[in-house]
Amino acid sequence: MTRAFQSRAFLYAFCLFVILRLSLSLLGFWGVETFPIAPTQRGPADTRDVPRIYNVEGYNILGIWQRWDALWYQKIAMEGYEHDPNSTAFFPLYPLLVRGVAWVLQGRYVLGALLVSNIAYLVAMFLLYRLASLDLSEDRVRRALLYVSIYPTAFFLLCGYTESLFLALTLGAFLAARRGRWWPCAALASLAALTRGPGVLLVLPLAYEFWQQRGIRITRENIPALGLLAIPAAFLLFQAYLRYVLGLPTTAQINTEHWGIEWALPWESLWASVKLHVAGKATFIDNFDLFSLVLFAVTTVVAWRRLRRSYAVYMAALLILYLTRLPAAFPLMSMSRFVLPLFPCFLVLARWGENRYLNWALVIPSAILLSFFAFQFTHWQFVG
Questions:
Q1: 139-184 confidence digits (pLDDT tens)
Q2: What are the tens digits of pLDDT across the range 89-102?
Q3: Residue 60, burial from CB neighbour count under 10 angstroms (0-12, 13-18, 19+)
Q4: Distance from C-alpha of 157 to C-alpha of 373, rounded to nearest angstrom
Q5: Cα separations in angstroms, 164 against 11, 125, 198, 206, 306
Q6: SS3 326
Q7: What's the pLDDT score for residue 1?
Q8: Which of 89, 219, 230, 276 measures 20 to 30 Å from 325, CA to CA?
């Protein structure tokens, strides 16, 4: 790719980042000024011991993003896993990076977490631009980046969560795979598996992509395929570290014992969600979680027909995994956040968005819901 193309890719990604970052910051500042919420509100009991930002200036800019799982990642970054066994539900790469950045910033963990996530978002948008350009026109590529950035839960990409880092590593792995650079591909995918548990399933679409490119012949040129075994190995090594080095429960164990997540067949989770809606007990976010599942399932089918089939394998594998989780209270809890890194959906939407009416039908409601959900999040309402 030419230097001019890379400059355009970075410039567009950077402009999106600046607009989204400023918009969310201004929205958050306006929200807490207009509808005040006490900086001393502690949130869930498990994370009430995590240091908070209490001064007004710092709280209105940074402290309003110290919510829910962001506090868990801050806790792990500060203390490691040993101080709270329930923290083993969360994977280590993101808090490790936060710890490193916070050390440079002399202990400013909240700022460090936001820097890691924001830089990861910028890198992810740059990589998505380059990856999508292998198959789509530049107009479609730019629409895809826009649709990712204004998806109603996209604010998670810029706060202290793992979504932007996971997306950046996944895109890097796919871009390396498309170029036939399998060792870097395996390394990036392994890091993704240390960022979020579902990253272990990257071995499936990447192996499929390898098969599409080179077949399954046993030759010297196909030896790099063995590098993909590092992806499940990274996942298993982390679980072994928790169990045998620290003497703590594994991620699956703690999800069941503490977080109340049962494991079910995919259609059981879907049926539980349908029953919740039929009974009239579903909240607005429950409705959006179901909508997100349907949208991403439909675009998975389209991706199989219109995009690289490895992209569809990626989406299908993670969607099925998400459906095997059955939280006690809300069957599809956090689905609208979990699907954010499933980038092929946005490539499909970018094709559909060539129709200007459909484009605006996507942009306007998404931007409104993004503002609404971000406001809810900063006011301690659970969004995903």
A1: 999 999 999 999 999 999 999 999 999 999 999 999 999 999 999 9
A2: 999 999 999 999 99
A3: buried
A4: 13
A5: 18, 9, 14, 20, 25
A6: strand
A7: 62
A8: 230
- Give the pLDDT confidence of 267-290 residue by residue, as tens digits: 999 999 999 988 888 999 999 999
CB atoms within 10 A of CB 224: 17
Q: Which residue bears the tokens 């960022």?
A: 195
CB 37 within 8 A of CB 62: no
Ramachandran assignment for 84, one of left (phi > 0), alpha (psi -120 to 50 degrees), beta (any other): beta
- Between β-strands 325-327 and 261-263, what pairing exists: parallel, antiparallel or unpaired? antiparallel
| Identity of the amino acid at 114 | L
As a whole number of angstroms, the distance between CA 344 and CA 304 comes to 10
Contacts of 378 (CB under 8 A, 6+ apart): 28, 31, 32, 37, 64, 65, 67
Q: Which residue has the tokens 């499929």?
A: 208
Going by C-alpha positions, the residue among 44, 93, 96 that lies closest to residue 71 is 44
pLDDT of 40 above 70: no
Residue 143's contacts (CB-CB under 8 Å, 6 or more residues apart) are 349, 350, 353, 359
